[in-house]
Amino acid sequence: MSQTDAELDSLDRMRRLTRRLNLDVATWRLKLALKGGYDPSQPRIPSGEPGGGRWAGGSDGSTGSKPAGAERRVSMAARRISPAAEAECERLNKMDTIYCNAIKNPACHGQASERYAACLAGKPITPLPF
């Protein structure tokens, strides 16, 4: 029993979609892993009280609210990456994404994600082999 061209095209589209979704999940996991400032042992305000569900602050009883920009500074310090280095990694990732979209190769996006992770980690960045 042979498959028609339409069925083969449909299967190919599904495979590409699956690869793209797998890449999206991997990217999400990477971003989650790199998120700084998260402490699972920090207490939370009980749900029945004002501000319930939020992270409890320090010994002063504050809710731990930070002024705008403070969270980003904490995140950068936790990751040990400078804003300039992060901006360069973002620039590289945008260029890789444009390139991979142009050549329409799902494997290229996977390699681009690996390059982005290496850049953020301060590791050597391999060239795109496409």
Automatic annotation (TrEMBL):
Biased composition (Gly residues): 49-61
Region (Disordered): 36-77
Highest taxon of source: Bacteria
The name this protein goes by in its record: Uncharacterized protein
Annotated organism of origin: Xanthobacter flavus
